What does this fold into?
Amino acid sequence: MKAWITGAGGLIGNHLARIAPKVAPEWEILGLTRAELDLSDFDAVRAAFRRQRPHLVIHCAALSRSPVCQADPKLAHRINVEITAILAELAADVSLVFFSTDLVFDGQKGSYVETDAPNPLSVYAETKARAEQVVLVNPRHTVIRTSLNGGSSSTGDRGFNEEMRRVWSAGRTLRLFTDEFRSPIPAAVTARAVWELVIRNQPGLYHVAGSERLSRWRIGELLAARWPQLNPRIEPGSLKDYAGAPRPPDTSLECARVQRLLSFRLPGLTEWLAENPHEMF
It folds into this structure.
């Protein structure tokens, strides 16, 4: 059986493709990068789908940089909503997994569950929330809301840890919010969870994130302790002083629904770092 993975050059897409031979050997992986197929060329996408006839589409590709989305809402809508709609249409009779974000919530309460109503604050989050609606019309299809994903990417700038490491490697200081909370997770763990859902054939809406609610500041402390050789420097900041695109204060996710279907426990970042001291993270 053939599986399309869009955004295969990105962080989660790359991890999904890399672990597939081990955890999902029955799938032939067709990893799609922008160089191989321009998803914004809808005619080309339709032709490729008809030619390759995948039995599964895992849609990771997105315009995910919030400042870019904020500056160009039309581009964000085309990439994050219209491309998703085309893929959902083509995959109407097969499985589709779409990656969304914890940022669809406004962050006023935290510990969000799947039944909580989205209230996106930024253009990026708005496009993701709209794409979720498009995908979930089909009961065969799945939406995965995830949080900050970390790990090693081919371009070296996709994981939140890679961005922090680059700043420290350049000798700069990171200013991190003490009052913004997420549920960070290694991309390798996200990928494993998604493949288990695919194999179980359990479509729907799921939260897949780390089991620990952490502030940006605490995440920085954990990674600074992991890389003392970089002489990492951090200073505390507050969302109250931030003037950029809207940022919700607490989009931590509860993952009990997906946890019941998985063969392993979703770890918190502190636990995972302690148990994997030699991982490239």
